[in-house]
């Protein structure tokens, strides 16, 4: 049997299980999640042991540093996973929510009701906690899950997926609602991305390689890809506020997608603002790469190459450009931004509303740090990623974004005339 | 220059124009639509003349019947198009609507605001009125449009697209916001479907051939494909109501996607209901294809082949099956339905709510005809198709479904700690 036939066969069983899962009550789903949290704590030693196999194998292939750290699980990290699952228990169930309802003149009552999407494939890289986080979120939203993790974490992921399946089984949910793809070959991703009809949605969590692998996915995706975020300091910005926002956006956590990569400064305040922000950035250990006008004011800054404006550094590096106007700033962001999050700092309400309207980003900030582009910070209670899609869901996602809707139309014998 | 490079070049200009269009006021968009309605009436004679070229060319290639009828435009049809455009003027502008807003404990005010999707490619077949209908809808929702119509209507579509472009130009909207792809070769569709980044959404309007051509589209789609709709007449159905609903669902307009194709009848009422509905169906000229148990009660019915249960007849043909239970009906619909619209007729509230929950269709009807699965009948004011997608939009679509949203976050210097 070919790998594709094999995958199609399993997916048919996942689809079947998804139908039962979609009809599970909130209590039943929460019981499974509570059981999962308990099972994680109970199995902590076993998980750490299996994880050690993955770590040892990774070390022998020369992997080190941040990658190894992302791969590693210890008891505190397992406890954090268990708590994350318990937090998802406490979130309201999106399934069954009436989004809108109205009655037509002919007496038909129309309800738009939230329902699960169906079968979601989560394709991720080295972090094994995604198995639990994404699994618990999909489950709470009533979706069956296909998990395809990275090669390096395969033993840990297999162990964790087994623990989820056990929790499902013990609480009367068909364990086929979770399928851990125990084959980290590139080919499995290539097959999965063409299973329209069997897989309703792919949630990719990873970097450039994964993005490239899924470039032509026929299955719809909710990708969480690049974040090239800008802050534009307007001519009417309060400079102290601008400085605090810029330092936060760049330095709070430079390795994440909502960190600032490009700073745009209006020429009228550049002479005052640039030396000031440069001092703070230097203190924070940030390397500056500037345009020519920036370097006139900050002679120690490195020159920015063209490629710098399109770079997601994810590091303590910042590209700075002096612009002549808010329009130039907006045009620059349109060209170089990734549409994830961009900010303006200004006291001018006209500039603020022009920026809000014209910057086509999922999250547009006025006088706040781009670091707030985040499901928790938005108050969604859970973090299911930040969609860089324009369709279905855009920006920070919560549980709702893992659902769709259907219409229920109640009549008393109406026919169309 | 290759065709693909050529297409990419034009799409870059369309994207540029889409940015201006997205910022147009409701008044400006409505002015363009009113101008378009006037221009259509003014150009009626010219349109009919050009359309005659298409019709003559089609006739020489042996095309006839319904296809020719769909292709043909006369003055009343042009008047209907103009009125359709005026109706879109009267609909509320979805762009700018605040979907939700809330304030976080740290004082950040978050607004979820409706914005245009960007660049929408409408790929359609022979009906030239789609050029105007879809063009006007996309425009009202602030989207730039790429139009790729069928070979047979190319002269008419070119003329109509030119009229839209004129209306845009006269009202200060960049006419590059509409691109009529004046090349009906198969290749253009194959290129368009891979232009992720340049095209945000494909709206396909057509039949099986178009569906197959777009099977592996990398650009997200809002497809309007098959409708294999069911009506299940429960053991506790009011039979007169069931009869009226079934006749309406089958006969009101058999050629459309929300017409009933399969009728399921509970065994307890089959002996009473089947002869009754068979009489009415016969009067309406409907051919019945029945399962064995149906044929015991209706000996004149043709036997249904396996393929009948999966057929979208779009014609006066109905497949009928006797089922043992509501569960068998639900299972049958899950297997054979296309998820567009399915109905139950019952007086039993428990059966109704079980059907509502377990039938995974975009529109689930209780005691009403599936023919109501329609944007106008839902009260959306406009018909942009019925999405057979699970994501972004599902079921009947209005103008809102041609938009997305962004978050605007207003602060007073907040930084993340």
Structure, described:
Two copies of one chain form a homodimer. Chain A is an alpha/beta fold and 417 residues long. Chain A contains 15 helices and 16 strands. The longest helix of chain A is centred in the N-terminal third of the chain and has 20 residues, at 3-22. The termini of chain A are far apart. The interface between A and B is large, with 68 and 68 residues. Strand 13 of chain A pairs parallel with strand 16 of chain B, so a sheet runs across the interface.
List keywords for this structure.
homodimer; 417 residues; alpha/beta; Aldehyde Dehydrogenase, Chain A, domain 1; Aldehyde Dehydrogenase, Chain A, domain 2; 2 domains; seven-stranded parallel sheet; four-stranded parallel sheet; 15 helices; 16 strands; globular
